[in-house]
Specification:
The structure is a single chain. Helices cover 33% and strands 14% of the residues. The protein has 337 residues and is an alpha/beta fold. The chain has 2 domains: 4-83, no CATH class; 96-335, Aldolase class I (TIM Barrel), CATH 3.20.20. Strands 3-4-5-6-7-8-9-10-11 form a 9-stranded mixed β-sheet. A two-stranded antiparallel sheet has the order 1-2. Bound molecules: iron/sulfur cluster. Residues 121, 123-125, 128, 130, 165, 167, 197, 226 line the site of iron/sulfur cluster.
């Protein structure tokens, strides 16, 4: 993998990029060349106290200078709107606390179980439904990992382990290899699925050691990247996806439908086409999960259906993602229509 060279000329591997994120909103605004008055800035700081700002420099470099409505900036910049009252919204919109039998493990669906290997992400997306998730209480110790492995081994109805947010690729290759080797001996587990935004925001994360781990896996590896706008993708992403494909990894994408970011057929059509050209199949188009602090991203269901129908006229069926929502307590995602 060729290292990332930032606009400032700095060359970075993925670990350096991950340890050198933008966390100060003033710095992000300065890079984006957005002036802000002090009242607005006070609200931004308050929103940051609830959910920290974290942005990789390579992602910030893609924000259009001087454009306060840039679709990448809007996904990561804390805003006063996060502080507004939000009736109907909850800190645990998917009822995950009730499905958390062991720290680090969420079991909602019959054949799949979810493990939060990490409590951190490379990027904090302001719409994230886990923005209030109690990661501190779910920190994985060696004992918890053993408990999780035993839980999976004893539950033969499971056939898939999902590693998801915090971003599972934010942990070291050694931790990933260790966990996959524990799972390798469990015969009824046939698939391991990573849900991750890292290959989008720091594509250098797909390094040779990780590729070797994936290609040596007994179980089928699936990576579901999370991307919401075509401007997030570049030739570094293309290279990472090509390397994963060459190592037998299946690639899918999921997108959250977000107001003022991707709520038009042109952007979503371009995104599907762009993903396909990188070897990634569009999988889900999610309605927003109603998490406190994210009301301003919501698209009414009626409008979402209209957008989805427009996509069907623009794209071949295999490039139209399923329009879904998650409802707490249901045994699967729910197709919207
Ligand atoms: S879990 Fe996913 S959506 Fe949530 S902050 Fe992390 S990368 Fe963003």
């Amino acid at each position: 993998m060729i290292p990332y060279v930032s606009l400032s000329g700095q060359t970075n591997d993925w670990q350096s990029q991950l340890s050198n994120l933008i966390t100060d909103p003033k710095e992000l605004l300065a890079i984006a060349e957005i002036p802000t008055d002090s009242r607005e800035y006070h609200a931004i700081e308050q929103a940051c106290a609830d959910f920290q700002l974290r942005v990789p420099r390579a992602f910030a470099d893609k924000i259009e200078k001087g454009n306060a409505n840039d679709p990448l900036l809007l996904q990561v910049l804390p805003s006063a709107q996060e502080l507004l009252a939000s009736p109907g919204y909850s800190t645990d919109p998917l009822g995950e606390e009730a499905a958390n039998p062991i720290p680090g493990l969420i079991h909602k669906y019959e054949s799949r179980v979810l493990v939060t290997l990490s409590g951190q992400c490379a990027i904090n997306c302001r719409y994230c439904f886990r923005r209030h998730f109690p990661y501190a209480e779910n920190r994985l110790t060696r004992d918890h990992l053993q408990e999780i492995t035993a839980y999976v081994a004893n539950n033969t109805a499971l056939n898939e382990v999902i590693l998801s947010g915090g971003d599972p690729l934010s942990v070291s290759n050694t931790q990933i290899r260790r966990f996959l080797s524990e799972l390798a001996s469990i015969q009824h587990i046939t698939r391991i699925r990573f849900h991750t935004r890292l290959p989008v925001v720091i594509p250098e994360r797909i390094d040779q050691t990780l590729l070797d781990t994936f290609s040596n896996s007994r179980q089928k590896i699936i990576i579901v990247v999370h991307t919401n706008h075509p401007n997030e993708l570049d030739e570094r992403f293309d290279r990472a996806m090509a390397q994963l494909t060459n190592n037998r990894v299946t690639l899918l994408n999921q997108t959250v439908l977000l107001k003022n970011i991707n709520d038009n057929p042109e952007t979503l059509t371009k995104l599907s086409e762009r993903l396909f050209s990188a070897g990634v199949m569009p999988y889900y188009l999610h309605l927003l999960d109603k998490v406190v602090g994210a009301t301003h991203f919501e698209i009414p269901e009626h409008d979402a259906i209209g957008l989805h129908r427009a996509l069907q006229t623009q794209l071949p069926g295999f490039l139209v993602p399923k329009l879904v929502r998650e409802i707490a307590g249901k045994s699967s995602k729910t197709w919207v229509y």
